[in-house]
Design brief:
about 350 residues; alpha+beta; Heat Shock Protein 90; 5-stranded mixed β-sheet; two-stranded antiparallel ribbon; 10 helices
Length: about 350
């Protein structure tokens, strides 16, 4: 990350150096072609290039950000013209000190002759000099505006991405904090109901609960976890829930047994299973819960289907899926936008969920 930041900070400097290298060398190569003078690194040109650089950076560091970017374009234009005029006189004085007027005039005449402009009336040399300087000034000012605008847009995009990342992290933390207490509360209720029925089963449940709590406290603190760890957590949860269900409940579990190093967000599938036990268990009639998962390359295929107990179906409303499932939907949107497919089918008798996730980055 630090290397990436350093590279981003160095890139603008390299761009500035390359641009000025071209601006310094290219014009002199062209001039030397017509003047017959290959010594294009004269002191006079260095002074001219320095003056051009000062004009650029006055605009780049002061006029553009302070006035142009703050919608004070009229004042910016006025100040830019003043700066250009002031430095024109300095540039003109520099030309008189270090350049021979007859040589400059000869260069212009040769260029006119080659471009077949000699047949027309030639404008005065001084007028051409002013015209060339004005055109160069427009290019310099425009380039400073364009470069500053690009950098401001890039910085704005970077800030926007950082804000979105901070928002994502805060929302995920909020959603995870909602999931954990909700699940923990239901699990404690299950253990409480088992204590009076079977002490041994209660002890086994407490042991499994300790593993669940360890996962919640440590693994879920990370943004991602191994799929194999998540599967182990799911098995412990289902084993814990099975201790309190009757023989009338048919629970079918088909989860990958081999180690899988795919990375996924923790506690992503538990709300579906929790919802199945909450709404699919009936103590009056036969009911079922089917949980399946398989993987292929970087994809995870998960399904959870359960019967809907009649005594609970009567209490269902539009929000029967509960906080847990809503949190899962939000987490999927935040983490796997465009890379997941979630289908929830709800009927009076059966509630089913099918989820496909592409974990590839």
């Amino acid at each position: 990350m630090e290397k990436l930041r350093a590279r981003r900070n160095t890139l603008p400097i390299i761009m500035h150096l390359l641009v000025w290298l071209v601006l310094i060398i290219l014009p002199q190569i062209i001039i030397s072609r017509y003047s017959g003078n290959n010594n294009f690194i004269a002191w006079g040109f260095y002074i001219n290039a320095s003056i051009i650089g000062v004009i650029f950076y006055i605009n780049y560091f002061w006029l553009v950000p302070k006035f142009y970017m703050n919608n004070k374009k009229a004042l910016f234009l006025l100040l830019a013209i003043v700066v250009v005029i002031c430095f024109y006189f300095i540039l003109d004085y520099s030309n008189h000190l270090y350049h021979r007027p007859d040589r400059d005039r000869r260069i212009v005449e040769e260029i006119q002759e080659e471009t077949r402009e000699s047949r027309f009336q030639r404008p005065p040399f001084k007028l051409m000099q002013i015209y060339g300087y004005s055109l160069l000034s427009i290019v310099i000012v425009g380039f400073s505006i364009g470069l500053r605008a690009i950098e401001q847009y890039t910085a704005s995009e970077k800030r926007q991405k950082e804000l979105e990342k901070e928002k994502l992290n805060s929302e995920l933390a909020f959603l995870k904090n909602q999931v954990s207490p909700h699940f923990f509360f239901n699990t404690l209720n299950n253990i409480y109901s088992m204590v009076a029925i079977n002490t041994d089963d209660a002890q086994a449940s407490i042991l499994k609960l300790s593993k669940l709590m360890r996962y919640l406290l440590y693994e879920s603190e990370h943004g991602v976890t191994k799929l194999s760890d998540e599967i182990e957590f799911m098995r412990n949860y289902i084993d814990l829930m099975q201790l309190r269900v009757s023989q009338k409940v048919d629970i079918q579990i088909d989860l990958p047994s081999k180690q899988n190093d795919l990375k996924i967000p923790p506690l992503l599938f538990i709300p579906f299973i929790e919802n199945a036990f909450k709404h699919g268990i009936s103590y009056r009639e036969k009911s079922f819960i089917k949980v399946k998962m398989k993987t292929s390359d970087n994809k995870v295929f998960f399904s959870c289907e359960n019967s809907v107990a009649k005594e609970k179906a009567e209490k269902r409303d539009e929000n029967h899926s509960g906080i847990g499932l809503e949190n899962v939907k939000k987490r999927l949107n935040l983490l796997f936008a465009g890379k997941y497919d979630l289908n929830i089918d709800s009927t009076p008798e059966i509630f089913s969920v099918k989820l496909e996730i592409d974990t590839a980055k």
